[in-house]
Amino acid sequence: MTRRDRTHDCAHGHPGGGAGTDRYSRRRLLGGIGAVAAAGLAGCLGSADGGDESPAEPIALDEGQTCDVCGMTIADHYGPAGQLFYADGKPGDRDGPARFDSLSELLASHEERVARGWTLRDAFVTDYSRVEYALRKREGVIYISSHVAADAFADATTLHYVVDSGVEGAMGEAIVPFGDRDDAEAFVAAHDGEIRGWDDLL
């Protein structure tokens, strides 16, 4: 079962659409993919002292939540979003994860927080294999739609990331995640770029 999420007008923060939009169907993946693979990323995930915090679940980012880095409303902008759950109740100013409207901001923020001694419990990003996404060309630039429902997010450590494709999101060139490697390869064939794993991005 597929779901259509709106595309957004990146310049003005309003929903967009129209004849410039091409829709690509992607098959939904079953939940719980590759959870065991995350365990091999030493020093990246999980409490160092074997703490008893339960695994997190992704939340919807469609209620006006803003990006922790740039402050923009996540649902109002193009591209993949992300959420990071840290140990010891961090960030301490809310009941929930750190939130981002682009993966470049997510990665930069995560690097800074790890340097301050934070421990990542769980990471979730938009999985474009789970959604029916749209590409929209505006003034010669191709933008990829945003999907912020809870079931659009997947374990970031298991996905295949297309980088250097030239397709843009909220903050410039997007890092586009796919749960299905065939979908990532099809995206590269259409838009160029390279495929990387989570550990390659860190």
From TrEMBL:
It holds the Pfam family NosL. It comes from the Archaea. Residues 1-12 have a biased composition (Basic and acidic residues). PROSITE patterns: TAT. Residues 1-24 are annotated as: Disordered. PANTHER family: HTH-TYPE TRANSCRIPTIONAL REPRESSOR YCNK. This is Nitrous oxide reductase accessory protein NosL. It comes from Halosolutus amylolyticus.
